[in-house]
Automatic annotation (TrEMBL):
The keyword Nucleus does not apply. The keyword Zinc-finger does not apply. Keywords: DNA-binding, Transcription, Transcription regulation. One of its GO terms (molecular function) is DNA-binding transcription factor activity. Residues 1-58 form the HTH lysR-type domain. This is LysR family transcriptional regulator. Belongs to the LysR transcriptional regulatory family. One of its GO terms (biological process) is DNA-templated transcription.
C-alpha cells in the first residue's frame, strides 16, 4: 500500500470532503477523488460514504485510520531523523482565537520564519475551538484547557483585559467613576449565544446585562471601540494597535485570563513539533509581555 495514498486518505478523513483535503494537500479535488478510488480498489472496500454533510468513514475506513496514522508518525519520524535540527521547515498550522491570531501571532510568526527560513506558518483564526483530532491544525492556542480527548496541554501565559473606550467617545459622554455610571453608556461585547468558551464572557464583569453592539470577533469589537461606538472589554495587548483607546474604571474592572497550547498526544514523538511548540510558547510569552507593558492607569472618562 502506497504511503502517499494513505496520506490522502487521512486528509479526506479529517476534512470530511475532497475539496477540504485538496486545499490542505495543495491538490485538485478531482485528483484527490481519483486517488481515493485507487486506494479503495487496492484494499477491495469502500472507505468513505458520501453524505449530504460530507465524506464519512465506513467501517472499513475507520479500521484503516489507526494503521494510517501509525504510518504517518513513522514517516514523520524518518524525516526528522534525517534532517535533525534542519527539520524546522515545512508547514505549521496554528489554530487560535481571533484576539491571539490578530494581535500576537503575526509578530510571533515573523520571528519564527526569520529564525527558520524554510518554515511556512498558517494561522487559523476561528470563533470556536480548533479540532485537533480532525487535524484542523498542528497545534492550537485556547483560552481554557480542554478536558477531553487525547491531547497534550501546556499553560503559556496570563494576559489581562480592561474596560476601555476611545478618547473621543469618553469626551462626549458622562464621566465614569463607579460601575453604576455604565448605565449611561453603550456597551460592546460578544454575541451571547456565540460565546464558545466561558472564559470569553467578559460582559458579566461589568454588571451590565446586555450590549448594544456585539460580534463573535474580538477584532471587530475592538474596531467598534476604536470607532467611538461605545465601551468594551479589550485585551491590554491589543491597546498598542488602537491609538486613542484608553482603559477606564481599572480599579473596578480588571480581568485575567490564560492562554494554553494544545497538541495531539500522537505528536509527542515528533521532535520537530516539540521544538516548534517550545519556540511558539516562548514567542507568545514574550509578545504578551512586550505589548502589555506597564499596567494601565485609571481614568474617569472625562475629557
Amino acid at each position: 500500500m502506497d504511503w502517499d495514498d494513505l496520506r490522502i486518505f487521512l486528509a479526506v478523513a479529517r476534512a470530511e470532503s475532497l475539496s477540504g483535503a485538496g486545499r490542505r494537500l495543495a491538490m485538485d479535488a478531482s485528483t484527490v477523488g481519483r486517488r481515493i478510488a485507487r486506494l479503495e480498489g487496492a484494499v477491495g472496500a469502500a472507505l468513505f460514504l458520501k453524505t449530504p454533510t460530507g465524506y464519512q468513514l465506513t467501517a472499513e475506513g475507520s479500521r484503516l485510520m489507526a494503521p494510517a496514522e501509525a504510518a504517518e508518525l513513522a514517516a514523520t519520524a524518518a524525516t526528522e531523523a534525517v534532517t535533525g535540527e534542519a527539520g524546522l521547515t515545512g508547514q505549521l498550522r496554528i489554530g487560535a482565537p481571533d484576539g491571539c491570531a490578530n494581535y500576537l501571532l503575526p509578530q510571533v510568526a515573523r520571528d519564527l520564519c526569520d529564525a527558520h527560513p524554510g518554515l511556512e506558518i498558517q494561522i487559523v483564526a476561528l470563533p470556536r475551538v480548533v479540532n485537533l483530532t480532525r487535524r484542523e491544525a498542528d497545534m492550537a492556542i485556547t483560552v481554557s484547557p480542554p478536558d477531553a480527548g487525547r491531547l497534550m496541554v501546556q499553560r503559556l501565559t496570563d494576559y489581562h483585559l480592561h474596560l476601555a473606550g476611545h478618547a473621543d467617545y469618553l469626551a462626549c459622554h458622562p464621566p465614569l467613576r463607579t460601575l453604576a455610571d455604565l448605565r449611561g453608556h453603550r456597551m460592546i461585547s460578544y454575541i451571547p449565544d456565540m460565546i464558545f468558551d466561558r472564559e470569553l464572557d467578559y460582559l458579566s464583569a461589568t454588571g451590565v446585562e446586555g450590549a448594544q453592539i456585539s460580534s463573535n470577533s474580538v477584532a471587530v469589537q475592538m474596531q467598534a471601540v476604536r470607532a467611538g461606538a461605545g465601551l468594551g472589554i479589550v485585551h491590554d495587548f491589543a491597546l498598542p494597535f488602537a491609538p486613542g483607546v484608553v482603559p477606564v474604571l481599572t480599579d473596578r474592572i480588571a480581568l485575567t485570563r490564560s492562554f494554553w497550547l494544545v497538541r495531539h498526544a500522537d505528536d509527542r514523538a515528533s521532535r520537530r513539533l516539540t521544538l516548534l511548540a517550545e519556540a511558539l510558547a516562548q514567542g507568545i510569552r514574550a509578545e504578551v509581555a512586550r505589548l502589555e507593558g506597564p499596567r494601565p492607569s485609571a481614568r474617569d472618562g472625562r475629557a
